[in-house]
Amino acid sequence: MKSRLGENPKETDVQKLINLGADGVYFMDNLGEAYVEITEKNVRRSLKVNSKAYKLFLHQRFYNATGKPVSLEALKQAAYHFESIATFDGKVRKLSRRVALAKDGRIVYDLADSQSGAVIIGPNGCRAYKNGPGIFHRTTNTAPQVWPDFDEEHDLLKLLSKHFRTQLKKDLFLLAVYIVSCFIPEMPHPLLVLAGEKGAAKSTSMRMIRAIVDPARTDLLSMPNSTDNLGIILSNNYMPGFDNLDHLSPERSDLLCMAATGGSIAKRRLYTDDEEVILQLKRCVMLNGINIVVTRSDLLDRSIVIEFKRIPPSERKDEGEVWDAFRKDLPQILGSCLLLLSKAMAIFPQVELAEKPRMADFARWGYAIAEAMGKPGQLFLRAYNENQQCASQEILHNNPVAAALLKLMEDRREWESSPTALYTALQDVCMRNAIRISGRNWPESPNALTRRMNNLRSNLEQAGLFFESRKTGDRKIIITNEHYKPVSSLSLKKRRRGKMNP
């Protein structure tokens, strides 16, 4: 009896599966993972060969062709065969999450809908079309995006002001520039840190920002306990948003730094001893908390902190009402972001910054985006610089080491001593000024103190404190206060008499 495939009835299920999957395009991604491009109803998509999704696809084809299910073992063997084809016969193709850079320099944005829609953005405009290129890998958390409204140009700041309640007007401008920049692939992006008291709609704002850039089935994520799990989340989400944080460990801070500026981590492949999986990270990461959760200076230098206002009871709305209004505006918001990016792409080649801050690529693109919005690029640079300075001040006042150093040096031009003597002096300062020295933020030894000071170096230098550690002979730490202004003896006497404000 012949099978429905019209093949030899003695043919094994594995051979049938191989025949059924022969029309797939097998290739390797740039990290060495085997993929297949399949076409269903004229819609192309790329799947990992060993993924559950591809095995389900093969199972469905087998059932439609034979009228019976196929064993999991046969699926595994067929997938192994296709993996070898991808490895040894397939070409290498770079896959991206949500946003990709085309060979001609234009940007491709994945709408990830049932029609595999995409938007091409170039310096001459934007165009949305169906059945986009198979250059995107969509994870189980990837959700479809609305089609952008390009019918007319809308004021992005005006649209965003309807849905985001930032403490400062300039922060809304900074937020708008940041959101547009998130559509630029292969560029280091600052972390977006949302802060504000309870009831300031931080979580809702984060969900809306993600809905604009990278819609997800689970849009708010909890910070995992292990760095391996954090690496997987960062790899699988173009714009992961971590909700309601109160602390970041040094290990997680280091991984988030890598995610902002770009890097790769390796982890052991499941059920193997020596095979590795490479996870490539360059993401638009968001964090929120009642307080500013970023406390390490290296991560703060890569962050934008936006504070939100508490919503008064008289202005609160039902969640459904809030989201209905936002979804109504979303096509216009998305269209406005992409059109502004198109204009910025035409401006960007002419942008040269006299002074480049940390995250220089973002600063240069931010300048171009501001100009595309009809605002001076210098206005963006000033807002960005002030934002970083304010965040740095927050760390200096909330970090006990920084607070103690500032107090120690407020009436001194210079300090020179051994690390042990400095450690003792700082403890004494903390005791006299009620600065808490218990807990994880206070170093346990003089050696740990110098490491903490190195982590705070850029923040302390902004406050005028410069230090060096000399290792010739007895180790010495020298601190210089560039903001120190000597007070005359006459002024001191007047101060003591209360005749002069301190």
Describe the fold and architecture:
This protein folds into 3 domains: 13-88, no CATH class; 156-393, P-loop containing nucleotide triphosphate hydrolases (Rossmann fold), CATH 3.40.50; 399-481, Phenylalanyl-tRNA Synthetase, Chain B, domain 1 (2-Layer Sandwich). It starts with 12 loop residues before the first helix and ends in a 6-residue tail after the last helix. With 502 residues, the protein is α+β, with helices and mostly antiparallel strands. α10 packs across α11 (360-372), α11 crosses α12 (377-398) and α14 (419-432) crosses α15 (446-455). The chain is built from 17 helices and 16 strands. Helix content is 42%, strand content 16%. A 4-stranded antiparallel beta sheet has the order 4-5-6-7, covered by helices on one side. A 4-stranded parallel beta sheet has the order 9-12-8-13. The chain has a 3-stranded antiparallel beta sheet with strand order 1-2-3. β2 (34-40) and β3 (43-48) form a beta hairpin.
